[in-house]
């Protein structure tokens, strides 16, 4: 297990919290730590299937080390009384696409910058689809942008491995493309 110190809470989801952390030791790199607490009582189901899928998919695609997919660095589960604590340690990325676009100048993003963002995003999607992974929740909040302009696809909680005999939820697969609307709202 990677050792780290929590620096600040940076987000909260339906199952837990996300923290900015720093690795303890020589590297001292920044990390994103997602902490979840699940009841193990008979009335509750334990770890939701979406969390299990997310960890499994991140481990699967992590073997390829694609530059446009967020990297899962470590995952651990610990029993604490009648609860289970799940911790995911991911590479830390500075901001999501919404935040990145909110900082854009009034005149909009340059054509070259839009092309670069889209090329990286499409390379990440091509990698996923080539490996039969359907993200199913692609939106600005799940596209991370580093201060160096690197695009990383994140949050694989709704993702599925595509097989020809599986029915996917139509509501998710017909979701409006918020990414295109966000990028198109900025003039070239």
TrEMBL record:
What are its E.C. numbers?
2.7.11.22
Every copy of the Protein kinase domain together lies at 4-188
Residues bound to ATP: 35
**GO BP, one example?**
regulation of gene expression
| Keywords associated with the record | ATP-binding, Kinase, Nucleotide-binding, Serine/threonine-protein kinase, Transferase
Give the molecular function GO annotations.
Answer: ATP binding; cyclin binding; cyclin-dependent protein serine/threonine kinase activity
Q: Which SUPFAM superfamilies match?
A: Protein kinase-like (PK-like)
Using the UniProt record, name the top-level EC class of this enzyme in a single word. transferase
Q: Name one Pfam family in it.
A: Pkinase
The record's annotation in SMART domains points to: S_TKc
One GO cellular component term: nucleus
Superkingdom of the source species: Eukaryota
Against Gene3D superfamilies, the record matches this protein to: Phosphorylase Kinase, domain 1 (3.30.200.20), Transferase(Phosphotransferase) domain 1 (1.10.510.10)
Q: Does the keyword Phosphoprotein apply?
A: no
- Catalytic activity entry: L-threonyl-[protein] + ATP = O-phospho-L-threonyl-[protein] + ADP + H(+); L-seryl-[protein] + ATP = O-phospho-L-seryl-[protein] + ADP + H(+)
Q: Which family does it belong to?
A: Belongs to the protein kinase superfamily. CMGC Ser/Thr protein kinase family. CDC2/CDKX subfamily.
Q: What protein does this entry describe?
A: cyclin-dependent kinase
Q: Which organism is it from?
A: Cyprinodon variegatus
